[in-house]
């Protein structure tokens, strides 16, 4: 059967019968019926793979590896997704508990009170921080470098949270098996200090990171670092680099050296441990790590490193030291009544003369160091005031670091005979003069028998002699004549604010006063009789220069007549020239009064020139007696040392007023007791108990002197030999007085 072909006009061919099978051409003489094209093994480009057990196992292993890695990457991806979701959930949860970011604001730094001397030099800082805020460009450049080097070396490259630093810290903690390194950036630390509590919880940590991101968004790196350095705690009560510099090195943060800056940065790791005030060795070891970190980061070179390591810091004082700290404490007690609540930084200009303050401090300390042990004296105080009432020096104790108790303005003690000028002034204002005569002899007022020091009596003496020799019997007589109320009024008019007991014992200084007010009252004699407005604060301003308070020296009212001032100055000058304060004489026209309280517990000297009035006290805080220290010994010596230095280079000036005696006063000396009258032989009770319980004397007959008359009735008293009265001679007064 033959295949029929037909050709179309186009030259193509087609099968006449599609239903029959197609006959394929033969190759190598063998017919093929396959519809596809195939080749034998020899025609292949590469030889076929050999099949066998080994190749199949390899393929299986490779497959299993691919499957295991795939599954690992898969589950890692899944877990990372869930981790991100979990972290986002935690962040969202704790973030939702925080106030809206629109309400976030940097809290104000605790206000600082900068207290400066009259010449503008810094005396002290007060406030929570302990120092003023300082700009980054104002402080030593070593400080920010040291802090960044040891606390956050990637500070200028991270965005508030440092994943690299955090991971590095966590790795070291895991290796060490304990927390050895934190992962917080400086920004995070600032956020914690500004907004959060120190609790170590997940919530606080999340909030810390969120706040750090906000800080980085809102502020520049330098602004963040500046805020951090002015607010972070540097130990020993110091917040901020200025407070730390003053605290540890006694200088401004502007002036600290490389070693000191490294020490400040070293404190941050553990302020209570690395404080130079606690352990200088530990502070220096940590400072070396800081210095090496600075060198490793190219902030300093090897030469600077060696030089800094060769100058380790020494141990700082245990607390703020120096007598100027007493001034600062006093300022803070007076400041709020003047300007109200302190809400921002202020500057207080004081009346203190920095040079005189240092001289006063040394004068007090020298006497205690030299004589304290052998004379049982442990403390002293000094106050110096000019004629306007401005306090120029104020020393509240021997060692502020050891005790911050203010013995100048807070402690109240019996003034002893330093109170007598108010008694004599009251008598002069009633007509007495320095020439007025009194009988210095044993005196009995009721059951009270005031005695002179060492039992010495001089017979007939003028008031000048009686005051210069501090005769107790004459002072008691004058209080009898003037009345206690007149003496209290006189003391208050001159500036004594402490309450005074109205009794005859007032003449011997039994009512407690403080050194500041007593010295201020004496300044009336120095300035000619005007009221002295005692003050330490001259002006208070804010940082913009706005005046918040200013002490304006208006015309001071006259409280003592010129004639009375002249008489008092004449009498009190004799105390230094021939009386109980000879050791205080330093060549200038000066006056004053010594005082010693019962059992030698307190020793005083208040003296003055036409320039300054200075008061000194020595004693013990526990009120134990000294070994017979009187006002004419240590207080007079310290007063002389201070006043000599204070008046150096000044023109000599006389005291206000001139008064001359009507006739030369005869020299006086102790006379035998038989001539002035003997005691009645009754054993003397404890004088202090008698002074406190001494009854007020009823007013009876007024007495007159040739120089004037009294304005108060005067009770009688026995002066001289004790006299026996018959029953017919006794009066109602005798019964009242126990005679």
Structural class, from helix and strand content? alpha+beta
Kindly report the average pLDDT value: 82
Low-confidence stretches: 1-19, 27-37, 673-716, 721-739
Strand order of the largest sheet: 4-3-5-11-12
Distance between the termini: 184 Å
Kindly estimate the percentage of residues that lie in beta strands according to DSSP.
5-15%
Question: In one word, what is the shape?
Answer: elongated
Q: Which percent range fits the helix content?
A: 25-40%
The count of helical stretches stands at 23
Question: What is the tally of beta strands?
Answer: 18
CA gyration radius, whole angstroms? 47 Å
- What composes the largest sheet? 5 strands, mixed
Walkthrough of the structure:
This protein is an alpha+beta fold and 739 residues long. It is built from 23 helices and 18 strands. A five-stranded mixed beta sheet has the order 4-3-5-11-12, with helices on one face. The chain has a five-stranded antiparallel beta sheet with strand order 7-6-15-14-13, sandwiched between helices. Strands 1-2 form a two-stranded antiparallel ribbon. A hairpin with a 5-residue loop joins strand 13 (591-596) and strand 14 (602-608). The longest helix is centred in the N-terminal third of the chain and has 44 residues, at 53-96. It starts with a strand and ends with a helix. Residues 1-19, 27-37, 673-716 and 721-739 have low confidence and may be disordered.
């Amino acid at each position: 059967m033959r295949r029929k072909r037909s050709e179309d006009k186009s030259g193509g061919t087609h099968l006449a019968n599609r239903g029959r099978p197609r006959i394929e051409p033969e190759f190598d003489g063998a017919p093929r019926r396959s519809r596809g094209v195939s080749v034998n093994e020899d025609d292949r480009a590469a030889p076929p793979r050999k099949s066998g057990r080994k190749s199949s196992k390899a393929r299986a292993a490779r497959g299993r590896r691919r499957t295991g890695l795939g599954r690992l990457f898969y589950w890692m991806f899944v877990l990372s997704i869930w981790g991100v979701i979990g972290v986002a959930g935690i962040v969202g949860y704790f973030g939702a508990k925080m106030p809206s970011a629109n309400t976030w604001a940097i809290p104000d730094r605790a206000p600082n009170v900068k207290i400066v001397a009259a010449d503008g030099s810094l005396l002290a800082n007060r406030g929570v921080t302990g120092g003023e805020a300082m700009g980054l460009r104002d402080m030593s450049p070593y400080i920010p470098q040291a802090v960044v080097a040891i606390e956050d070396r990637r500070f200028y490259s991270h965005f508030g949270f440092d994943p690299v630093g955090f991971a590095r810290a966590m790795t070291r903690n895991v290796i060490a098996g304990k927390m050895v390194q934190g992962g917080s950036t400086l920004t995070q630390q600032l956020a914690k200090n500004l907004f959060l509590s120190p609790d170590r919880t997940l919530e606080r940590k999340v909030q810390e990171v969120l706040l750090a991101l906000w800080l980085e968004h809102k502020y520049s790196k330098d602004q963040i670092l500046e805020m951090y350095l002015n607010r972070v705690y540097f130990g020993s009560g110091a917040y901020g680099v200025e407070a730390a510099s003053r605290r540890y090195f006694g200088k401004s943060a502007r002036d600290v050296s490389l070693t000191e800056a490294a020490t400040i940065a070293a404190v941050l790791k553990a302020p209570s441990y690395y404080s130079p005030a606690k352990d200088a060795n530990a502070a220096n070891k940590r400072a070396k790590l800081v210095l090496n970190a600075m060198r490793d980061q190219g902030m300093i070179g090897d030469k600077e490193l060696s030089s800094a390591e060769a100058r380790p810091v020494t141990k700082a004082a245990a607390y703020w030291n120096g007598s100027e700290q007493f001034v600062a404490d006093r300022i803070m007690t007076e400041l709020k009544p003047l300007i109200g609540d302190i809400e921002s930084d202020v500057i207080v200009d004081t009346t203190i003369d920095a040079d005189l303050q240092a001289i006063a401090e040394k004068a007090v300390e020298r006497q205690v160091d030299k004589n304290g042990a052998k004379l049982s004296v442990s403390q002293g105080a000094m106050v110096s005031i000019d004629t306007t009432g401005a306090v120029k020096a104020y020393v509240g104790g021997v060692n502020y670091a050891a005790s911050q108790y203010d013995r100048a303005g807070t402690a109240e003690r019996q003034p002893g005979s330093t109170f007598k000028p108010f008694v004599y002034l009251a008598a002069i204002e009633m007509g007495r003069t320095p020439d007025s005569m009194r009988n210095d002899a044993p005196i009995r007022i009721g059951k009270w028998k005031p005695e002179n020091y060492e039992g010495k009596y001089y017979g007939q003496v003028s008031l000048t002699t009686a005051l210069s020799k501090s005769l107790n019997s004459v002072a008691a007589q004058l209080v009898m004549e003037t009345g206690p109320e007149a003496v209290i009024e006189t003391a208050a008019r001159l500036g004594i604010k402490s309450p005074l007991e109205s009794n005859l014992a007032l003449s011997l200084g039994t009512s407690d006063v403080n050194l500041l007010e007593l010295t201020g009252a004496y300044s009336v004699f120095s300035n000619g009789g005007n009221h002295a407005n005692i003050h330490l604060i001259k002006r208070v301003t804010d940082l913009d220069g706005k005046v918040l308070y200013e002490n304006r020296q208006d015309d001071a009212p006259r409280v003592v007549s010129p004639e009375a001032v002249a008489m008092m100055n004449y009498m009190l000058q004799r105390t230094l020239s021939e009386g109980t304060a000879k050791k205080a004489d330093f060549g200038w026209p000066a006056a004053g009064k010594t005082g010693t309280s019962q059992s030698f517990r307190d020793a005083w000297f208040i003296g003055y020139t036409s320039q300054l009035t200075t008061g000194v006290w020595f004693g013990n805080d526990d009120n134990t007696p000294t070994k017979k220290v009187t006002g004419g010994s240590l207080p007079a010596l310290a007063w002389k040392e201070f006043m000599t230095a204070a008046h150096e280079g000044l023109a000599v000036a006389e005291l206000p007023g001139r008064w001359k005696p009507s006739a030369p006063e005869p020299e006086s000396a102790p006379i035998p007791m038989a001539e002035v009258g003997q005691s009645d032989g009754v054993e003397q009770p404890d004088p202090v108990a008698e002074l406190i319980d001494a009854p007020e004397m009823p007013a009876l007959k007024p007495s007159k002197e040739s120089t004037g008359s009294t304005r108060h009735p005067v009770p009688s008293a026995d002066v001289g030999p004790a006299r026996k009265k018959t029953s017919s001679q006794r009066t109602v007064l005798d019964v009242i007085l126990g005679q």
